[in-house]
Design brief:
The structure holds two protein chains of two kinds.
Chain A: H1 2-29, E1 32-39, H2 44-66, E2 74-81, H3 86-98, E3 104-107, H4 111-123, E4 127-130, E5 147-148, H5 154-167, E6 180-186, H6 189-205, E7 208-215, H7 223-232, E8 236-240, H8 245-255, E9 262-265, H9 273-280, E10 288-291, H10 307-321, H11 330-354, H12 359-368, E11 401-406, E12 409-414
Chain B: H1 2-7, H2 10-40, H3 47-64, H4 69-92, H5 100-122, E1 135-138, E2 141-144, H6 145-167, H7 169-179, H8 181-186, H9 191-213, H10 224-238, H11 243-263, H12 266-283
Antiparallel strand pairs in B: 1-2
Helix pairs in contact in B: 2-6, 2-9, 2-10, 2-11, 3-4, 3-5, 3-9, 3-10, 4-9, 6-7, 6-9, 7-9, 10-11, 11-12
């Protein structure tokens, strides 16, 4: 009897040990990082550029999944749709963290979503890697420990475009104080932040700001704003908007006979050339846009040698998803580059140096980053300021560039170091909006 | 005095005219919604989404099937009219005896169904008809032909609806049912048929609005969000079911938006318009030209 019990106990112990052993082996075999990816796949922001960002991030995630993961960790992505609504973005972020048990969050197109989501994710002490949204309000003075953004911030966009016009002012034949500029923007976190940069840049350059105004991106009519612009007679309009508010404004501007010398956009809707062209036709010729450089416009010679083949792969994959696109949007490359940066520079360090993929390991690995200019597909380097800094979590080496659309092609025109050609300024005579 | 003259410039006149033209767009949208409420006593919360489907109809007929705008427009109006009748048959008719909140929620549900359907069927891209109408120039003022067309269509639509309601047998039956739903059935009027005709007519007006809005706006699954709430407010401000009230309210609302936006920030134009709405709801809860209580 005793022997029988002993045999049973022994059998049970062996079975338990075997089970535990198998579980241990299985756990060792199934090392993985689960990533929650959030973009807007429906709602107005989806067509305004968010879907393109999603495509860029997915191309990169799929390529790393296909390659078998990173440093022995498999990659699993859980995608969520923020539906162009901040409340949905927050709920989805929390759902991914608490129910799907993701190890980190990646993505986010809209600044209006980024600001509250970043706060919530920080409370949860989870790691957040922002690929897109640019508002300074996401990070300025917040001293977040787990939120990181390799992307340039909104005020940098606004400052950059003012600097560009300032350095090209001779083409207008005017002194800075005589150059009439209008700053108009959608009234969300993104538009307001860029306009602050515009404002500071205009003051620095000594421009005459004749109009500064925000509007709701869903307003059904912008004719009163166009009338005010007509009255203000700006030489240069600095505009920050999504779509379709950009096409509505410019269509009403054409119908109401608004004239100006240059129009400078700041990403989002201005980054989706196909839609601008469809809505505005040839009027889009000679418009400017500010964004991180399109990965397809970077100079291969200035980049790390391992990057051009990756850029080529992203282009080929994108063409499979959206064939026949005249100008591949910078949005795609932006998300792809920032996702690639995470997989190649943050994740391996977290695993090898800090022992895993928990939020603290990822945070420490992000803070270790020290990439020189040319080290990313977007041309800029990466360095996050130390914890406790005013802009903790913001890449201090990022910068946007100014591009100009000319005859269905886009050219970098500013800064000088990246410029592919001279900017055409002001709008040539005979074009719809030209004030010549 | 000097500052008054400073603002009383040609741009003020342009803003006033643009306000009137915007009023035309809003009046056109309010016309169909008022017709439905006036007769069936049901508010189609999803009305702007019917307009969105009509805009897609125009886009595909013109851009993909190569039809001319003038051929595509009547087809679109018929399509949305059929959709209006279908909406009544499938959703409204079974709920006619239900409490108003149930009807409201049901049409609210249709709103989300149509938005989701459009997202799945047509994608999230913004579509543009690609037709650019000329611009009317007068002195230093410029006006959009597409807005003038909407304004004209709103006026003509208003007159045609008025004549239809007062000069035809069906119109008279519709008005009679609007006055007393129960008694007309007892007098031999086929109320089901009248409701169906009214719904189709409301749909046709949504289709007409779609044909004109597609000249001014990009089409996307959520375009209705820009117009739906404001159209509903205008109908309430004018007195739900009151055509003339809706017409007046549309122009008042549009002028406040346009002039408020000119003298202050554009956002303030909308704030003033909505504040005006709230104040009027206190003063005249039944609407500006209310008949119904």
């Amino acid at each position: 009897m005793t022997m029988r019990i002993g045999r049973r106990l022994l059998g049970g112990a062996v079975a338990a040990a075997a089970a535990l052993g198998f579980a241990g082996i299985a756990a060792a075999q199934e090392k993985k990082i689960k990533i929650g990816v959030i973009y807007d796949l429906t709602g107005p922001l989806a067509g305004g550029g968010s879907e393109l960002q999603y495509i860029g991030a997915k191309i990169m995630i799929d390529s790393f999944i296909k390659a078998g993961g990173v440093e022995g960790y498999k990659i699993e992505a859980v995608y969520a749709d923020a539906q162009s609504k901040p409340d949905v973005a927050i709920n989805e972020a929390v759902r991914l963290v608490e129910q799907e048990k993701v190890d980190m969050l990646l993505g986010f197109y809209s600044s209006a979503q980024c600001v509250p989501v970043a706060g919530r994710v920080e409370q949860l002490k989870e790691f957040m890697w922002i690929t897109t949204c640019i508002s300074s309000a996401v990070l300025d003075g917040k001293n977040y420990k787990y939120v990181f953004r390799p992307q340039a911030s909104g005020d940098q966009f606004g400052l950059m475009t003012m600097d560009f016009i300032d350095k090209n002012i001779a083409k207008f034949g005017k002194a800075a104080k005589d150059l009439r500029v209008a700053i108009i923007h959608e009234d969300g976190a993104y538009g307001v932040d860029v306009s602050k940069g515009n404002d500071a840049g205009a003051k620095k350059a000594g421009f005459n700001v004749v109009l500064k105004e925000g509007y709701s991106a869903t307003a059904p009519d912008l004719s009163a704003l166009v009338t005010k612009l007509k009255r203000a007679r700006p030489d240069v309009i600095f505009h920050t908007g999504y779509n379709p508010d950009i096409t509505l404004l410019l269509r009403q501007a054409r119908e109401q006979g608004l004239k100006f010398g240059a129009l400078v956009g700041h990403g989002a809707g201005y980054g989706v050339y196909e839609k601008l062209k469809e809505g505005l036709g040839a009027d889009v010729n000679y418009f400017f846009n500010t964004d991180p450089i399109s990965i397809w416009l970077t100079n291969d010679k200035t980049l790390d040698a391992k990057l051009p083949p990756v850029i080529k792969m992203i282009g080929e994959e994108f063409d499979k998803v959206k064939p026949g696109v005249a100008i591949r949007s910078a949005h795609v490359g932006m998300a792809a580059s920032n996702t690639y940066l995470f997989f190649t520079a943050v994740l391996p360090v977290a695993i090898k140096k800090y022992g895993g993929v928990d939020p603290d390991a990822l945070r420490k690995a992000a803070l270790d980053l020290d990439i020189k200019e040319g080290g990313t597909m977007l041309g800029f380097g990466v360095k996050f300021p130390a914890e406790g800094s005013q802009m903790a979590g913001q890449n201090e080496r990022s910068f946007p560039v100014v591009i100009q659309y000319v005859d269905d092609k886009s050219y970098v025109v500013w800064p000088k170091s990246q410029a592919m050609r001279e900017a055409v300024l002001p709008l040539p005579k005979g074009t719809t909006y030209s004030n010549q | 005095m000097g500052s008054f003259l400073e603002i009383f410039d040609i741009y003020l006149l342009e803003a006033m005219v643009n306000g009137i033209l915007l009023g035309g767009v809003l009046a056109l949208l309010a016309l169909g919604l008022n017709l439905i409420f006036g007769v069936i006593d049901v508010t189609w919360i999803c009305y702007a989404e019917l307009v969105m489907i009509g805009m897609y109809g125009m886009y595909y007929l013109v851009q993909y099937y190569g039809l001319s705008y003038y051929l595509a427009a009547p087809l679109t109006i018929l399509l949305v009219a059929a959709l209006g009748a279908l909406l009544h048959w499938l959703v409204i008719a079974p709920l006619l005896g239900a409490p108003p909140i149930n009807q409201l929620l049901a049409t609210g549900g249709v709103l989300f169904v149509l938005q989701s359907f459009a997202t799945v069927a047509f994608g999230i891209d913004f579509r543009n008809l690609g037709i650019r109408l000329p611009v009317l120039q007068f002195a230093d003022m410029h006006f959009s032909y597409s807005r003038l067309l909407s304004f004209g269509a709103a006026l003509v639509g208003m007159v045609v609806i008025y004549l239809f309601m007062t000069r035809t047998y069906t119109g008279t039956a519709i008005r009679a049912i609007a006055q007393d739903r129960q008694i007309m059935a007892l007098m031999g009027v086929d109320t089901k048929k009248i409701y169906l005709v009214t719904s189709a007519l409301g749909g046709a007006l949504a289709g007409l609005a779609a044909c004109l809005l597609v000249l001014q706006y990009d089409v996307h699954p959520f375009v209705g969000l820009s117009f739906g709430p404001i159209t509903f407010l205008i109908c309430v401000l004018g007195g739900l079911g009151n055509f003339v009230g809706g017409f007046v309210a549309a122009f008042l609302f549009a002028e406040i938006i346009s002039l408020g936006g000119l003298f202050s920030d554009l956002e303030w134009g909308y704030v003033l318009a909505f504040a005006f709405f709230i104040v009027m709801m206190f003063i005249r809860p039944g609407g500006l030209l209310a008949r119904r209580q």
